Amino acid sequence: MKALQCLAVAGLCCVALGCATRFSPGKVRNEIVRQRGVDPQRSFEFNLGRFTTFMLKSALTTEGGDVPFAGLREIQLSVYETPEHDGPAIDVTLFAVRGWEPVIRARDERRSIMILVRSPGRLPWSDSDGTIGDLVVVGAGPRKVVYGRLQGTLSRELPSQLGDLFREGGPEEVMDLLSSVHGSTSN
Q1: pLDDT per position as a tens digit, 137-163
Q2: Which among 32, 27, 21 is positioned nearest to 145, based on CA atoms?
Q3: I want to staple 134 with a disulfide (CB 3.0 to 4.6 A). Which of 19, 56, 118, 141 is the partner?
Q4: Looking at residue 9, what is its pLDDT?
Q5: How confident is the model at residue 73 (pLDDT cuts 50, 70, 90)?
């Protein structure tokens, strides 16, 4: 009986550590549909895996050796155009979140933003090496919703930089920054 109890506790611990909310373009699209009742009018989605991201970073290395998004291993970006709507923007702070550390969650009538992080060890925020292993940003304005997920060894300053960018220019600025990584591959 004691062995069964130990097994049950071990199973619950594994489930608790591994049950973080899974973010994806589909999850964001579903939230738009839930809040607005219709599919986004237009969307743009791309994923860069490890190999493509490595090649991109190699191509973008400057003569001084600086690499934009140096610790980036993978990136997902989705941009959705939402239908005309009288009332507030999509409220991205309503996403149910488990297993992520919320860094920024803010909303007003015109826009909302949520930035979440996880340490490289997939456990909540870690001070061990001062880096972020996984970052999710979702921002919404009156007509656009932007989702970005960055994975790798990322600077701990990145969430506040993205938050400042969003506050100054809205989701379009965040979209421009994240899509510049993708746009550099087409030059």
Answers
A1: 999 988 889 999 988 888 888 888 888
A2: 32
A3: 118
A4: 45
A5: confident
